[in-house]
Amino acid sequence: MKAFDMKKWASVAVAAAAVAAVGCEKMTDTQSEWIDRGETVYVGRFDSLRVRSGFGRAMIVGDTRYVRTATTCTVRTGEIEHTYDIADIVSDDGVARILIEGLEGGSHYFYVTNYDAEGGCSLTTEVFGEVYGEEDLLVLRPCRAETMTPNPDGSIVLEWGEVESLEEIGVRYEGADGAWHEATVAADERTTTLPSWKKNGILRTTTRIRKAADDLDALELAAVEQRFPEEAHFELQKSKFNLVELPTDTKGNAYAGSSCGVRGLWDGIWNPYDSHSYHTADGEGVPHHLTFDMGVNAHLTRVWLAGRTDGYVDWNPKRWQLWGRETLDGAETTLPSMDAGWEDEARGKGWTLLGEFESSDFIYNEFPVVDAPAGMRYLRFRVTEVYGGGAHTGATGAGVYGCVAEITLWADEIIETGE
Length: 419
Fold this sequence. Notes:
It contains four helices and 25 strands. The protein is mainly beta. The chain has three domains: 47-133, Sandwich (Immunoglobulin-like); 140-231, Sandwich (Immunoglobulin-like); 238-416, Galactose-binding domain-like (Jelly Rolls, Sandwich). Strands 16, 17, 19, 20, 21, 22, 23 and 25 form an eight-stranded antiparallel sheet that branches. Strands 10, 11, 13, 14 and 15 form a five-stranded antiparallel sheet that branches. The longest helix has 30 residues, at 6-35.
């Protein structure tokens, strides 16, 4: 066995140490670039960033739990960079709200970086968002009043069309007093009652749409201009009508079958027989008249009259009149309707002739009431001529009869009296 050669192994050890020293020197050289730069400390950045869309602007919202030493913040979009003091954009609730104005409509990427007082910065965070512009307004549909229904009390009911993402409707309109009035309609309000309105007046509506619940702005569309109806006519409720029965009035119940008498004139039923019509008795003749209370004060605009439809159309009215009065104080006339002086006496007693009509059809006739003053409550319906037999050229006199099945009245103004 050979003896251990101490000198040989000592030489090997020295050589290995020399190689190791050279290797470590080279490794340090590769790290020196980074080591020479010194320690890097990053500033805390905003967390959970999101964008609230607005019209020509946006708001970036973020959590500040990791923001401790930051004093300023920059937001870059495109070639524009905005700088903000942290104290100005962080609220007491610990939420950062960064408002960026003057943006064009469309999609935007925002790059957010925080800085501390020593110049340290955070990692940059990228967040995407939409900004609304004029193009968005052009593709949205405004809300309109689909129907307008006038009420007898002077109000009008507007029914709105459906619009997606509606927030509210601003309403500006001309009232009956000639002044402009304003109202705001909530998104869930399908109908709106305006207390007054001007015939053919302007209704101007402005639609506001919020496309997303968290949007910064509602989008206000261009105003839509509509017109209120030029006319409004309301059928008077016949349930309010009552017979007055003044002494010279016809009783209208000549036949046993005509149990309704004059009241059949407004019971809402007309048929070819007597049971729901009035029919004059022997000797009552033509002209004849009757008086009734409409139950309201009204400005009459239209009247519709229906005669019998059976073989007795001879006795349906050919010419007839409507007279009106606000009250019955001193209203009774003493002359029979066939007397030539009846109209003069009626005028002297305060009755106003609302209209004279000549039927164009044996049975159904509708006419405008053009001379009626407002506020009439009591009416006198007066038949001055019936068709008569044969050629239906007209008939009057004591031996002539008269019958009518139904009357309907309309008004553009109705005042409930509460009586």
